[in-house]
Amino acid sequence: MSDTCGRCGRRLKNPAYIEIGFGRTCAAKMGIALPSKRKPKDKPDRQDHDQEPAPAAEGR
Ligand SMILES: [Zn+2]
User: What is the 3-state secondary structure (H, E, C) of the chain?
Assistant: First the structure.
């Protein structure tokens, strides 16, 4: 683990970027995603189905 960017050699201040070894710009250019602490937000696609529907016994 180094405190310089592995691409441009810039000094890294953010420990998150030091951890990945690249600065923010270089990481973005190389397609490296930050190990974000925040969990990704759940997509609000269950608005109208708040409760799970009971398994309806159709037929039989
Ligand atoms: Zn860099």
Answer: CCCECCCCCCECCCHHHHHHCCCHHHHHHCCCCCCCCCCCCCCCCCCCCCCCCCCCCCCC
How many residues are recorded in the chain?
60
- pLDDT, one tens digit per residue, over 1-56 is 689 999 999 999 999 999 999 999 999 999 998 766 665 566 666 556 566 677 77
How far is ligand 1, taken at its centre, from the CA of residue 7, in Å? 5
Q: What is the distance in A from the centroid of ligand 1 to the CA of 44? A: 35
